[in-house]
Amino acid sequence: MSVWGKLFTAVRGGVNEAAEAAADTQALRILDQEIRDAEQALRRARSDLAGIMASNKSLSRRVEEARAKERKDTESARAALQAGREDLARGLADRIAKTRTEAARDEAELERLNQRQQQMIKAVQDTEQRIQQMRREVENVKANESLIKAQSAIATTQSGVNSKLGNAMDSLERIRKKQEMTQGRLEAGQELAALESGSDLDRQLLAAGIGGQSQSADDVLAQIMGGNSSPSIAGPGGSPALDKPKDS
Predict the structure, then answer these.
(1) 187: exposed, middle or buried (Cβ count in 10 Å: 0-12, 13-18, 19+)
(2) Contact 102/66 with Cβ under 8 angstroms?
(3) Is the separation of the CB atoms in 97 and 77 below 8 Å?
(4) Lowest mean pLDDT among 69-83, 127-141, 152-166, 171-185
(5) 175-225 confidence digits (pLDDT tens)
(6) How far apart are CA 45 and CA 43, in angstroms?
(7) What is the pLDDT of residues 3-57, one digit of tens each?
(8) Closest Cα partner for 66 from 96, 109, 90?
(9) What's the Cα-to-Cα distance from 199 to each of 52, 152, 190, 192, 208, rounded to whole Å?
């Protein structure tokens, strides 16, 4: 195959693929249109069937009329023969023969139309059932298509939510770390300020029990039970000072 032939084949393949892709995306719409076309054809078939049924009824009436005419002419021919009018009887016999020929032709046509009518009735019924079944299947396919689209939308939304939640958690972690760093800087600043003012040293002395006066609930209770309601003055080293002797 020449290069141009291969290119032409490739172009045809691309066209077919594009046509198939377009058909797939419009499958439900195409299916709906095909069902509408089938329903239109079914309406035409019903109209044709109605015409055949009308022809059958007309032929049936003609056959019944011919049979009634034949019976009447037969009775008249018998009466003519009894009256000695063979000429009239012969004329009636000739008419009866023609009537029978026409009736036989109409009966043959009626039988053929009856067969055709039965065939069309069965075809119409089968087509109606197939269209109804196809309608149900299309509704099921549409419902499944809607469900798939909803699930896809939920999955896409969930993916976006998870991504956004991940970004939010990252942002929260960055904020938390920033707050911890800021809090650390504030605490460090407070410690530096305490060192510069000397208050940190006083705090350390109090914590070591040096300087100041600190009493527990047990000490206060012991003083009350001993009759000394006022706290003693601490002497050097934090020990209670000795009471001075009273003047005699």
Answers:
(1) exposed
(2) yes
(3) no
(4) 152-166
(5) 888 888 888 777 777 776 666 555 666 666 666 766 555 566 777 777 778
(6) 5
(7) 555 555 655 665 565 555 555 567 777 778 888 888 888 888 888 888 888 888 8
(8) 96
(9) 119, 67, 11, 11, 14
Among 174, 179, 134, which residue's Cα sits nearest to residue 32? 134
- CB neighbours of 90 closer than 8 A, spacing ≥ 6? none
**Domain residue spans in the chain?**
3-168
Q: At residue 31, what are phi and psi to the nearest 5 degrees? A: -65, -40
Q: Which two tokens stand for residue 126?
A: 């089968």
Both tokens of 22, joined, read: 């377009």
Q: Which two tokens stand for residue 68?
A: 């009634």
CATH node for 3-168? 1.10.287
Q: Say whether 240 sits in a helix, a strand or coil.
A: strand
